[in-house]
Amino acid sequence: MTNPRTIIEIRDGKKVFGSFTALTDINLSIRQGEILTLLGPSGCGKTTLMRLIAGFETLTSGAISIDGSDCAGTPPERRPVNMVFQRYALFPHLDVFENVAFGLKVKGMPKAEVKERVSRMLQIVQLDNFANRYIDEISGGQSQRVALARALVNGPKVLLLDEPLAALDLKIRQHMLAEMKRIHTETGATFVYVTHDQDEAMILSDRVVLMEKGRIVQIDRPEDMYARPKSLFAAKFLGETNLFDATVSAVNGIGTTAVTPAGIRFIGAETADRQPSERITVSIRPESLSFQDGEAATQSAEGTVEDVVFIGSRSFYTVRLDDQSPVRIQVQRNGRLALPSIGDRTRVYWDSANVVMLPHS
Ligand SMILES: Nc1ncnc2c1ncn2[C@@H]1O[C@H](COP(=O)(O)OP(=O)(O)OP(=O)(O)O)[C@@H](O)[C@H]1O
Ligand SMILES: [Mg+2]
Known about the structure:
By secondary structure, the chain is an alpha+beta fold. 23% of the residues lie in helices and 35% in strands. The chain contains eight helices and 19 strands.
């Protein structure tokens, strides 16, 4: 892959409100054309980071450059950036068409071109039949689509989307997600996207920026962040996982061996950063545990099946291991494999490739 161009660069960014530090040590290069998702708990600083990029806030210290030039002092309207707000601000005294057309008219675009562009955008967000409605005559979800159309219509280089689909119901959200991907491909714009929804982040993003308490804690492709979280916070935030406290007993050619107080032994493939006697937390995803001893599934523990939940083609088993810790196991039902029932004694297997060892916390 060729080295993609950086469109936004943030160096040592810090933002303080009064005595409260909302963001600190922010170092981030956003690549031209990517979909980058900011993910993290409420209050971790996602909206603040977006507002800094858009120019609605200024950094307390550090620097932001867009397209190669430092943008300190550049007002929002002169940045090649558009933002869709978490609480979208539409003009109530204008109808849907005029709301979307507003920015283009301010720029002095010829009337015929405005009409063509706005009409096409309203088709994309499926509001072409609502062009003449006022904002207080449409639903919350429809308003959100108007906000999206308004931000996209003037073809910004970077689109900042702050939970743009949060108010929509599941069906429209899925449709809009597909539309968003299509619009992204069509326009070649860079998308910076905020969501609380992990699935949305997984489906949409080229890279995920995970934030905690005003700091960036991990930047990775979604599949890598899921498979190789770097902290307990990341492991828990992105998807479900089983956690075990353990102590490292050996670091050698096989990998890292760690043992729980009750004697369950985990061998992880990686050895970097691990020390004998170190306390760690072992993380294994429910789909990485199995009732079958596969070729590479060299490790196991015994327990009793406590609960089974069927969800279509998958089942979730809860097995209480003999050390009393409950584990969740996701099983793909294919009808051929014999599966245990509630109350059965069983053996649970896993593979060293799926053992993730995290710093204890
Ligand atoms: N203008 C401001 N003055 C003081 N504190 C602020 C201001 N704006 C944001 N904050 C604080 O900064 C922190 C980060 O806020 P921000 O809106 O960026 O969070 P967020 O990650 O977007 O959260 P959410 O997911 O709930 O939208 C919060 O604790 C918030 O209260
Ligand atoms: Mg926010």
